[in-house]
Every structure is written in C-alpha cells, then in structure tokens.
Amino acid sequence: MKRLVLTLVAGAFGSLLVLPLANAQDYQDMSNDASQIHQDQRDIHHDKRDEQRDLEHGNLGAAAHEQADINRDRANENATKEDLSNDAAQHDDDWARHHHDDND
Prior knowledge:
Largest sheet: none
Number of domains: 1
Radius of gyration: 24 Å
Structural class: mainly alpha
Helix content: over 70%
Number of helices: 2
Low-confidence stretches: none
Distance between the termini: 25 Å
Mean pLDDT: 80
C-alpha cells in the first residue's frame, strides 16, 4: 500500500513538472507561427510592389512570376494561420480541462 501511495504521489508530482514545459512549447510554437505570418505578409507586400513595378515597365513575365510568389506566400500564410488557430484552440481546451479538474 505504501508503495502504491508513493507511486501515485510521484506520478502527480511528475505531471506538475511536465505541464509548464508543455505550455512553454505550445507558446513557442504559437510565437513561431505568428512570426511566420508576419514574414509572409511582408513578403506579399514586397512582391506586390515588385509586381507593380514590373507591370509599369511592361515586363509581364516578371509580373507573372511575382504573382506566383504572392499566391504561394498567401497559401503559406493561410496554412500558418490555420495552424496557429488550431494550436490556440488546443491550448484553450487544455487550459479549460486543467482548470476544470482543479474545481472537481
């Protein structure tokens, strides 16, 4: 019986130690996603300027290349936004579950 109690206490203590590390990793992942979204937005802005310049100079091939870059960056941005949204929802679910368990 004493061994069972010690095992349960050690398991509970170990869980408390791991929880902050998991939260830190979640926050780092969300921070990386947010940074990537900002980078994609900067790239899109830059590519739009380049596309406009190419169109003004009649360089349709280069403008088409810039438009392809814009489309790629938008797709990357949307995928990263979805990942960030999923990460945030999962974090909220984990937080709610953890705090709900505390109230029981």
